[in-house]
Amino acid sequence: LSRAYSEGVPVHHIETMFRRRDGSGVPVEYTVLPLAVHRKAQGAVVVFRDIAERRTAERLRWELSHDPLTGLPNARHLRQRLIGELVRLRDRGGYSALIHVEVDRDDEHSPPRGDELLRTVAPALAHRLREGDVLARGEGDSFLLLLSSVQVDNITILAESFEKLLNEREYTVGDVQ
């Protein structure tokens, strides 16, 4: 508000949280427009908009397309991307690869530790992705990698490189490595 007033610069679409008397929050977006009369700052107009509904819709869209454990896109999202990739390949040609990675958990550990392992493996796989590739959480303890625009001769090499990446890493889950 002070920047808009002192510098005459409008500020658009800033999100913040208002608090009700009971402590609950209301997400709002505001815009500040400076007012000038004869090129002299005379104040500002502040417009607030309740964005709770939009936030709820965004959260629901995210939840529908992402895995809550890893935060990665889920299999549903991957299917949509795969359909788009098939259309792209039909129109432009080329090759893509879909790689299935199954994480083998140590059965001695309780599921929460296994979940921690999945949360640890996900960023390791994501680190190797190129722009346009998709890493998604599959069913159970699996991940799916959609690699677009690959050379057909390199698909096996790519799959082996992801396997090597995971096998060479040391994972710590709780106090177990």
Helix content: 25-40%
Order of the strands making up the biggest sheet: 1-2-3
Count of DSSP H/I helices: 5
Rg from Cα? 24 Å
Helix-strand string? HEEEHHEHEEH
* Ends distance: 52 Å
Structural class: alpha+beta
Shape: elongated
| Average of the residue pLDDT scores | 88
Low-confidence stretches: none
Beta-strand content estimate: 25-35%
Can you count the beta strands? 6
The biggest sheet, with number of strands, parallel, antiparallel or mixed sense and barrel status, is: 3 strands, antiparallel
Task: Provide the fold topology.
Layout: H1 2-7, E1 11-19, E2 25-37, E3 40-50, H2 52-65, H3 75-92, E4 97-102, H4 111-126, E5 134-137, E6 142-147, H5 155-168
Antiparallel strand pairs: 1-2, 2-3, 4-6, 5-6
Give a description of the structure:
The protein has helices at 2-7, 52-65, 75-92, 111-126, 155-168; strands at 11-19, 25-37, 40-50, 97-102, 134-137, 142-147. It has 177 residues and is an alpha+beta fold. The chain has a three-stranded antiparallel sheet with strand order 1-2-3. It has a three-stranded antiparallel sheet with strand order 4-6-5, with helices on both faces. The protein is elongated and about 70 Å long.
